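=== RUN LOG ===
request id: a7f3
mode: sequence -> structure
chains: 1
length: 151
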Amino acid sequence: MNTLSYKTVSANKNTVNKEWILVDANGETLGRLASKVAKLIRGKYKPNYTPHVDCGDNVVVINAEKINLTGKKWTEKSYIRHTGYPGGQKSLTATEMFEKDPTRLVEKAVKGMLPKNKLGSALYRNLYVYAGSEHKQEAQEPKAINLNDLK
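=== RESULT ===
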């Protein structure tokens, strides 16, 4: 009996093969898009997924300005931050944040679905979001995928 076939292979930073993936956010719902992008960044769609290693792909999201929110979320969803001073709590609605910078909606949604530790910070650096259809990662030749094909 070959015992090598029963070994669990754990990926590390030297054995990981990272790819570049292009995702089009045109007409996508924000939360559903963000959860699938977070899984891609984390590497959960790969057979050699290891929870404590950055084994995910680099993801480029284009057309963030064409994202959808369902229900009354455009007016009632609020993004809260704090300046650090007493009484320094500030809030923006989704519409106000979208008008300032549409990419921040996608970035915040994906960042909230990543781990809250050093690994999560490293994974977040693998996300590139652009408002229009043009992006700066043509040299990496990202492979376009359809999110509806993923589970």
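=== NOTES ===
The first helix runs from residue 30 to 42.
The beta strands are 20-24, 58-62, 78-82, 89-93, 127-129, 143-144.
=== END ===
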